[in-house]
Amino acid sequence: MKVFQINTVYGTGSTGRIVAGLKHLLEKRGDTCVAACGRGDTQDEDTYKIGSVWDMYLHGILTRMTDRTGFYSKKKTKKLIERIEECKPDVIHLHNLHGYYLHVPTLFDYLKKNNTPVIWTFHDCWPFTGHCAYYTKAGCEKWKSGCSRCPEKKVYPASKVLDQSARNYRDKKEAFTGVKNLTIVTPSVWLAEEVKHSFLKDYEVQVLPNGIDTALFCPTGGEVREKYHLGDNKILLAVANQWTARKGFEDYLTLASRLPQGYVLVMVGLTEAQIKALPGNIVGIGKTENAQELAQLYTASVALLNLTYEDNFPTVNLEALACGTPVITYRTGGSPEAVDENTGIVVEVGDINAVLNAIPKVQQLQRERCVQVGKEYDAGMRLGRYLSLYDKIHSK
User: Fold this and answer.
1) Is the pTM of this model over 0.90?
2) What is the pLDDT of residue 280?
3) CA-based nearest residue to 8, from 38, 35, 34
């Protein structure tokens, strides 16, 4: 079997690691997989870079002015199609199509004519909105009938000038509907339910939760306390790829100011500017791809705090559980779906008092149970379900 994957990145970030994991799993069983990405480096054989960094920057600049991400890079998309034609895949697997690297109408015109089976994994809500990747923080439901006057216009993929959410919605609906052999995959039950209220509701939707490398994320000793001067404090950990209001950044600052003595909040994934601006009761750590150190931090912590306002199915929850660390999360998106009464506590969005009350309670939970649940999300097993889906679709 030949599979062709398309995503913003390859081998880095949560979606890039999923693409790389699927590629390696397919190759391990003797299949062929080509992975195409629009940003970053291509690291393996049979990977294809869509355009150049300058193409991506131009697409991004135009988006800032016109609010038309996904509607530039036409020439590069045609070259991508030529590469797909050379591969002649049995299945085409789409991931994130935003990220300033594709002309989606051109790609979907080809998919409709080519009729190769397509799987599209939704890592966020962008495929069925007129602009945003998430809308829950804004409380917006315009995407159900037709976007306009987008309250998230200045949020990724940000537009500083025009609001073309109504036009984008119409153009996406025209482009994305009518693919005869398309299966949508969502990592969370929450997102699957959202799709059912969108213009993509007529497609089959399957829920395949994300996985993690449980060989890396497991109870791990180390010297992170000494390295980051954490002393004997009880560590409350927060991890994100990018710290923004969507991730609840301000809520962590408020929480830290109210923590009792003996606790320390550690935030991972901050920029240098954010670290310099932190109050003294927060330890800031920059972005890291060092999974071993991250596993040490999870293991040393009494709880992972995930105060996200918008999310799909965050892998940080899974990583923490696999390391034996319970989770406190807001009730938003798919974040609560991996947490039960034995592995964490779910609180309402923005309720800092509930978070403070939950901290001593989660420390009574059995860390062994957290590890057991975390292992259920082993990447090999979870990605293996994609292989079963490939086989099922190919056999038809």
Assistant:
1) yes
2) 85
3) 38
